[in-house]
Amino acid sequence: MRAIRSTSTFLVFGSLLLPVGLVACEDHSAREVESLRRDLEATRRKAAKDVEDARAKASADVAEKERELAEARARHAARTEDLAYADREEYRDQRRRELVGLDDEITELERRAAKATGDAKRDLEEALADVKRRREQLRTSIERVGDSTEKEWDEAKRAVDEAVSDLRKRIRDAWDSTKKKT
């Protein structure tokens, strides 16, 4: 009988202590969950900052390279403008090489157009059609400039220089429109 009484006493006290233990476990679990939630939020904030920092660095790098390219183009243009009639073959060769570089930019725009959808695709394809038409006109002008007479030289050279500037502007405008729509 005594064993039964001890067992029942043990069961009574055990049943009274069990909720206390469960509450303690629940409290510990809640603290752990809250701690993990805070860690997750801190990780998210750090990741967002890292992404923001990477974007800022990439933008600065791109701006630097664009500046370098603009300076190189200006140096090239200055050298090209100084060429006289006697150097017309060199001038034509320089402009042909320049056209190859512009062709690379046009090819990249074509890739962008292939990936675009909706209005962006339509607008880019229209811009590309114009760019390609002007590119072909420039190619023809470049070929003619080498065959120009001394009397025609200044006008032929001016026409090619303007066509190059115009084509560059059209390509830049097409790029700008893709950036605005993406």
Overview of the structural elements:
- The chain has 182 residues and is mainly α.
- It has a domain at 83-182.
- Helices cover 93% and strands 0% of the residues.
- It contains 4 helices and no strands.
- The protein has helices at 2-81, 88-115, 118-146, 150-181.
- The longest helix has 80 residues, at 2-81.
- 10% of the residues are buried.
- The model has no long low-confidence stretch (mean pLDDT 80).
Give a brief description.
With 182 residues, this protein is mostly helical.
Give the SSE order as H and E letters. Answer: HHHH
Give the helix level as a range of percent: over 70%
Count every beta strand, where a strand is a DSSP E run of 2 or more residues.
0
Please give the alpha-carbon distance between the first and last residues: 85 Å
Q: Report on the biggest sheet.
A: none
Oligomer: single chain
Number of helices: 4
Beta-strand content estimate: under 5%
Shape: rod-shaped
CA radius of gyration is: 36 Å
| Uncertain spans | none
Average residue-wise pLDDT: 80
